[in-house]
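Technical appendix A lists one of the benchmark inputs used to test multi-chain prediction within the project. The record comprises two sequence entries:
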Amino acid sequence: MITRDRNWLLIFAVCVALAGVYPLFADGHQLTVIRDALIFGLFAASLDFFWGRTGILCFGHAAFFGIGGYIMALVTLNDAIPFGSLLGIIGAVAGAAFVAAIIGYFLFFGGIRGSYFTIVTLAMGVICQQAAVSWSSVTGGDSGLIGIPPIEFDVGGTHVDLSQDLPSYIFVAAIVSVVVLALWSISRGRWGTVLTAIQDNEIRAAALGHNAPLRLLVTFTLSAAIAGLAGALYVCMAGLVAPDLSGLLLSTEVIVWVAVGGRGTLLGPVLGAIFIQRAQQTISSFNPSLWPLLLGCVFVIIVFVLPDGILSIYARLKSLFKSRRRAQ
Amino acid sequence: MSDVLLQAKNVGIRFGGLQALEALDLTVHDKELCCIIGPNGAGKSTFLNVLTGTLRPTSGSVRFLGRDIAGLPLHRIARLGIARKFQIPSVFSSLSVEDNLKVARWGVPSPARPVGELLELVALTNRAATLAGELAHGQKQWLEIGMALAIEPRLLLLDEPTAGMTPQETLATAEMLLRLKGEFSIVAVEHDIRFVRALNCETLVLHQGRRLRSGPFHDIEADEMVRDVYLGRR
């Protein structure tokens, strides 16, 4: 357990260091590509925080990403609201958490688990996307909202303006690092251990005095809040928000990122998101219709062959060699 | 009496057309040990489920420290001081033995017994780092008893604690319970007569959902009717 923690911290430190020196070798365009990939990585980590520890799959996580994005857009586009960026982020996080808390309350305390939870959240994602399309007076309908200003705020007298590539990259990289580290420390300690226990045997955990539905609800709400934060960051960087951001395709993609990167590792999903988006850009440049097909195939292969993600290949090889050596 | 911990009065439960339990009474005093025995299908586990509040009786009531516990959420019942060991060993298989006990301790606000002592009690000190899923069957049963102890219960309910154990393990379990007697009340539902004999306590015999006999075990054991029921002669 202790060596596993140390390994995780080591890999985390290497990743942060790589992210830190990357601007020295990259031009502005490459920086923005990685920056956006990191935001989606944060989104993937938020799903992993819930799915990885509870074993319950949310198939509509993009709904929270989209809610965060729309709230951020509406707040920053309204000139009457002061401190738009800051209030927007707070609103995005709180809004996503609020929706998750309401939906989660009825699901968790109503005893909805497993595939049923997945199906209900799938419907939730579709409803959110439909609402974004139909409520056009607020959301801008199919075309969404454009012209969302970049994040800017004052810290101790210094004005921070994230309209440039480098500052925005550093800002995003710092937030992702801090949040992933925070989520990791929550999930490895007492909170995460009890969640694992609930995943193993919820009735047993309850019979020991643990309020399992409440714990699942809080975890789900926190996960949604982080997804909302990711959505808010994304729309400011991209400058636009559209119904796709809460759609089924993004919900599926984020599951693939987590599955590829390794469920329950928090860092793996971030890497998975970056890696797959790079692959997507490369492959789409040959033929745009090839990507969804490949994505589906990768998903099926991961589920059947490598349910613990690509990182598990190493562990598997290691145990294979061990058993070989024992056999000799 | 003032030291009554759990009182079941006139408990009956009906599943559709089946009267599973009928007119059962049970009083458990503080720090008392008692057993519920009976042949298969006598309603032992059902009765235990009613006693823990997981099943709501169709008639009668179950009161713990004077409070009706039927239908309370499981974690609330646990926090009132009722611990339970399930019939099928239910440990958290993907956690280590030590983490299993830790999770159990975290269930209550201020657990008194340290993990090390719990490990010793259930003889698993040298398996502390083992994943609970890899334990032998008997060890899983013991670990689950250890988890039940961790929440500092006033009352410990055991559903067939020795199911699947070897005769030696069964006797060791009985010894462990006798050591713990005096700290809190224990109600054990059992099938294994050797185990109940080793405990030698107040015993309630169920047959087809009704009380057949109750009293000290040595009286019960001598009872002709109980023997007939156990041997399937009635």
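Chain A has a mean pLDDT of 90. Chain A has one domain: 2-327. Comparable benchmark entries are summarised in Table A2.
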